[in-house]
Amino acid sequence: xxxxxxxxxxxxxxxxxxxxxxxxxxxxxxxxxxxxxxxxxxxxxxxxxxxxxxxxxxxxxxxxxxxxxxxxxxxxxxxxxxxxxxxxxxxxxxxxxxxxxxxxxxxxxxxxxxxxxxxxxxxxxxxxxxxxxxxxxxxxxxxxxxxxxxxxxxxxxxxxxxxxxxxxxxxxxxxxxxxxxxxxxxxxxxxxxxxxxxxxxxxxxxxxxxxxxxxxxxxxxxxxxxxxxxxxxxxxxxxxxxxxxxxxxxxxxxxxxxxxxxxxxxxxxxxxxxxxxxxxxxxxxxxxxxxxxxxxxxxxxxxxxxxxxxxxxxxxxxxxxxxxxxxxxxxxxxxxxxxxxxxxxxxxxxxxxxxxxxxxxxxxxxxxxxxxxxxxxxxxxxxxxxxxxxxxxxxxxxxxxxxxxxxxxxxxxxxxxxxxxxxxxxxxxxxxxxxxxx
Length: 438
Prior knowledge:
438 residues; alpha/beta; Rossmann fold; 2 domains; eight-stranded mixed sheet; six-stranded parallel sheet; 15 helices; 39% helix
């Protein structure tokens, strides 16, 4: 973590810079139980669950509040020792379009407060939690209200920023609504600490939203090195039933912002340029449509694109995969393509590198910190499929280069872990409680 001031050594009070006993984590619009790559779930789901588990291992009890949307399971379940998931009824216990969620915020807040009172009957006078940590702007509104009611500090993480997304929208994609932009500004103004995954996002918070830089802490996400580690390529391909092909990989939600069509066009161009070098190459596309794009079957649209440009026999679509199964996909691939318009960080790219797979990514957002150009893969300015095809062919035709990038990817990914992320967040909590005690 960078730019973190030390907690005052002389601070006195109830906490005196010690760890919080209990933390309320707000993840309203998506549950950490949801399958990443489908609907509105993605890297944030992995982040929330991974950090909560490790904080609990360090002795900090974590309650994660999410909106019940028909995913099954009890109202309250222990998802790891010391970590509970609380499904709050707000609107129907069924999926609701993200644009319609703001009207359910007061009802969700009431559910959070009711659960807290049931757990601790004195919570109307004393907070049942020492810190509230919100994820995404919708949760930030709830966290801001809980902060006022309970009198505890609020830590806010956004994972994506509406102003950034609107600045790089692909043609035809809908901009983020004004309600989101206003909501983000309100949360940023009221949060005691704002976590940014990279220095670039810290700059966005200051320059686009007027955030107080003194309240921003840079905390990079991590990767599970036990799960995401190199596996024998032939064995991984065999488990995916792709034993007779070399594999390129796209992992993510099937939306224009993520650029799956760029990956398909890049494959087609690579095959057209060098049919011998790319003769046995296929592209695996792993992911599903977002809630916003549900009325348009994005997989069908991409299949039609592949057919139109003559590579339908080389593009294989997979539904969103369990997180642990992604390690086989990463290990089986020659390269992972991440042609996103922007990424707050780029967790899939980091997971791929941890498996020793080079990444060809857009030089956008947090991807500039995850991918080191020429060392762990390649960064590409813009979204021209031809530029991606060029890097694909370089990796396919040069085993020495591919091996060097693989080793570089492993070294770089080795500098990230969820234990380190949780430790950084824990220090932020301690800093706030020390200030409060003083």
